[in-house]
Amino acid sequence: MSWYVLRRLALIVPTLFGILVLNFVIVQAAPGGPVERMVAELKGMHTSATGQFAGTSADMIQSGGSSGGSASDSSGYRGSQGLPPELIARIEALYGFDKPPLERFVLMLKNYASFEFGDSYYRGRPVTELIVERLPVSISLGLWSTLITYLISIPLGIRKAVRHGTPFDVWSSSAIIVGYAIPSFLFAILLIVLFAGGSYLDWFPLRGLTSDNWQELSWLGKITDYLWHITLPTIAIVIGNFATLTMLTKNSFLDEISKLYVQTAMAKGLSENQVLYRHVFRNAMLIIIAGFPAAFVGMFFTGVLLIEYIFSLEGLGLLGFESVINRDYPVVFGTLFIFTLLGLLLKLISDLTYVLVDPRIDFDRREF
User: Fold this and answer.
1) At what angle do helices 101-113 and 329-357 cross, to 10 degrees?
2) Angle 359-360-361 from CA coordinates, rounded to 5°
3) What gap in Å lies between CA 198 and CA 186, rounded to an integer?
4) Are 236 and 191 in contact (CB under 8 A)?
5) 169 burial class (0-12, 13-18, 19+ CB within 10 angstroms)?
6) Which pTM does this prediction carry?
7) Among 60, 61, 53, which Cα is nearest to 122's?
């Protein structure tokens, strides 16, 4: 098993390299990069409400910067006509675009090898600092949502498999389909209207992960305040995500229950619970474990983007989205690197969990 783990860890490097190459090429072809945005800002054409860099970046350009390359009306940047070539060169040097793409990519790889992601173009802060600052929100949403989803879906799926075709199975399936059909962000709005002072009750806060006086509270008060803030966002995420896992659990158990070894165990006089949890559970859970990394990363990042926005939670999902909109490339690639690495490590942990669930699995005998 140790040899398999070492091989999987070694494969992380080329996988990360391939993903970074692909995204770097796409970014180079995308219009509206930071240089073009700065040019538009300086010419008074930038009207986006998300621009946060006009003052500081303009001051940096005025204060100096090496002329790393020539620029003119044919510089290739939209809207650069009428601006001095020296100013365009300073803007390129400010964002590192005075170097060829290959040189920039190699420099990025060297920095990423030591987890040095540079500074945000528009926030003026290190990317690592931004990620660490947003990490608690994303971890909270991801862990609680995944934990509650699995705690609900697995027992419910087993119950539905055991009582397949009964009224319980029918009405629970109907409820699951309704929950799955409602988008998480729409359910979040409904929760706000009902329980967060929208139109009816005012039981839960609408903003942030903790209250302003959180530091002044006792440890019990801090825990209560944290759970008070995290309740509605977690419910909004769970309601739209437990349906798939529930049906997957049910179908997996139904497939195992129909096999011969289950009938043999029942014929030997074992109880239903003994058959389900000593024999069926291990085999049926393999496919569910296989989907855990994707489910966790999805909730951790992409799955909570709108939830973070609706509940004003400063998480990594919102950070990544804003960075893509603003063409904040250091933050885009930094978050991409972190989540790709996290997903690959979780996939390895998922494979190791296979062995814990079913010791008959031996990855060392597999051929790559």
Assistant:
1) 50
2) 90
3) 14
4) yes
5) middle
6) 0.71
7) 53
